[in-house]
Write a structure and sequence with these properties.
Length: about 120
């Protein structure tokens, strides 16, 4: 048992000495790439996130708006069926789902854009 402990201690010390004297080389294309940050993505990323959030909120409401207006019109056939509550409930559900999704998108994209200051 003592021999195993002594031999593992020698191996550990031998490997640490070798690691300290080895020459390190960088492989890959990092030397040739231009790694400078222009900062443009800090503007583009929040703008794209805001546009996606607006589209996420606006598209379903654009579809539900005419349906709601058509159900309120007394001359339409759907006025007598009384589907007004359906469109109101669908609009409320859509707004709640959009708010949850928008909160997530804002947390992911807006906080990450501010973390990497030059």
């Amino acid at each position: 048992m003592e021999q195993e402990t002594a031999s593992t201690a020698k191996k550990v010390s031998a490997t640490s000495e070798v690691a300290g004297t080895e020459r390190r080389e960088a492989f890959g294309t990092a030397k040739t790439e231009n790694l400078r940050d222009s900062g443009l993505w800090r503007i583009i990323l929040p703008v794209v996130a805001i546009l996606c959030c607006l589209m996420l909120l606006a598209l379903p409401l654009i579809i539900l708006g005419p349906l709601f207006a058509h159900s309120v019109d007394p001359h339409s056939a759907s006025y007598h069926v009384n589907l007004l509550w359906v469109w109101i409930v669908m609009a409320i559900i859509e707004i709640v789902v959009a708010v949850v999704a928008i909160r997530g998108l804002v947390r992911v994209f807006m906080t990450q854009a501010g973390n990497y200051r030059p």
